[in-house]
Amino acid sequence: MTFKRPYGAGLAALAAGLFAATAACAEPTINKGDNAWMLTSTVLVLLMTIPGLALFYGGLVRSKNMLSVLMQVFYTVCIVTIIWALYGYSLAFTGGSDFIGGFSKAFLMGVTPDSKAATFSVDANISELVYICFQMTFAAITPALIVGAFAERMKFAAIALFIPLWVTLIYFPIAHMVWYWPGPDAITDAVKALAAAGDEAAKKAAQAKLDEVMADGGFIFKKGAIDFAGGTVVHINAGIAGLVGALLIGKRTGYGKELMAPHSLTLSMVGASLLWVGWFGFNAGSNLEASGGAALAMTNSFVATAAAALAWMFAEWLVRGHPSMLGVISGAVAGLVAVTPAAGFAGPMGAIVLGLVVGVVCLFFCTVVKNSLGYDDSLDVFGVHCIGGIVGAIGTGILVNPALGGTGVMDYVAGKVGDYDFVAQMTSQVWGVCTTLLWSGIGSAILYKVVDVIVGLRATVEVEREGLDLTEHTERAYNM
Amino acid sequence: MKIVMAIIKPFKLEEVRDALTAIGVHGLTVTEVKGYGRQKGHTEIYRGAEYAVSFLPKIKIEVAVGRDQVDKTIDAITSAAKTGQIGDGKIFVMNLDHAVRIRTGEADAAAL
């Protein structure tokens, strides 16, 4: 599988998407099977967002705000798609600094149907364009997750402004930090050149070249954090941004006093199920190759999700006396979140344990912790995505251990799976989690303030009472 | 003439309709309503957010009958809608001054 652990230092591995900036001596070829799988995965991830996430969220709000949520999600997909093509891909996936890429591929400059992107195997490339589209769908779903935190009270104009700012200043840097690396071909070629170097001077030059290649990666990647499909980049990132938003914008009018029951758990169930289906593109697609690694990610995405749904359901049954539909689907989503970073690293039995743990932990956060702290994260973006993402990120560091059925972390310099070191791996994982929490938490707070000054974040109380559908969009979700 | 208005449990509607048909009442109007009485409401829980729902869904039926049929109508509704639990509903009887059948113009008793 994927990932490297360069020099003993534990400059280890990483995650889902990656990309080789440099074409090496042996010209890699595009693998049609891998390409076909990635084309499929890309549309599956789009399906997660629209209509999956949109319906899951939409069903959870009151009927007067249904369209506002659908609009916010659909808008997010469209605006991020355009931004991604204009400069997002370039900022996330070209070399630059450890924290952000450059503009060398802005407007997709130089990318043609013949351009190649690296996978996790030497000499197995996919079309760069499909890689661009695949990563585009990740960039689109992440900010769409955030809108659940301040659903039912945010002005559409504020969201229209916030989303482009957020992906530009928060998402692209984090994606770059976690996922940008030189790719297997570049590393392997540099290693071969070093081995082939004859005299001292040639060795020195080759070592310098290898050092240069290994230095060409994102900050969190070089810390050795592994994140298969985006536990940090997508879920912790969006989850903490959601919490900050919910805190800054304030509670919904009538929160805790009025009935704010979901208007259609039926639609939420449809949405959650579409999320699960689409997530196979997200997780198994993050393998970038239609190989056994993708099959492992698929297996884990099945079992962890089912385990988390059952854990939430039984825990709720035990504590509250009733198993609930909302509980089962919330648990399923929590399981999907937690298995995201672990999908290609954990073994299936490890993934089941991960699912069981996250189901209970997220239930605890969405009920006990939220109620005792009193913040109004409307659709539990923090409780499910941030907390589930953290459980997943930490869990991945444990479950990747080959002794626990994990795959270990590939060391591309040595050309084999590296030795597992618990302390080193956990340190790396904590680096990933904390960097994301701080970058996104502080950065998002600043962006909310900026948007508040420019257009104002919050809808008026009258608008909130009337519902955002009629006031903001002059439409009604249901004319019956 | 009287209007007999009854608030009943929704799942009892068919039984009440059958009972009224059996005593010769051949028309009634049904409305979905919400309300509460001694049954109070119930609690709904969504991810730990508990809501006391005070208003329960009920069915309101209205039937216009002649003075001589009022007692039979009340008996029919009472026996059909009764479960013995709180929340079975209530029956209200009101005077009806005048009735007209729109199609024919027939009035009062002939219009019922």
Cα distance spanning the termini of chain A:
53 Å
Continuous helix count of chain B: 2
**Unreliable segments of 5+ consecutive residues of chain A:** 1-25
What is the fold-level CATH name, i.e. the topology of chain A? Ammonium transporter fold
**Mean pLDDT metric of chain A:** 93
Helix content of chain A: 55-70%
Indicate the low-confidence ranges of chain B by residue numbers: none
Share of helix of chain B, binned: 10-25%
Report strand % of chain B: 35-45%
What structural class do the secondary elements of chain B suggest? alpha+beta
Largest sheet of chain B: 4 strands, antiparallel
Largest sheet geometry of chain A = 3 strands, mixed
State the CATH superfamily name of chain A.
Ammonium transporter AmtB like domains
Largest interface: A-B, 16 and 8 residues
Q: How many structurally independent domains of chain A? A: 1
Looking at the chains present, what oligomeric state does this protein adopt?
heterodimer
What strand order characterises the main sheet of chain A? 1-3-2
Number of DSSP-assigned strands of chain B: 6
CATH class of chain B: Alpha Beta
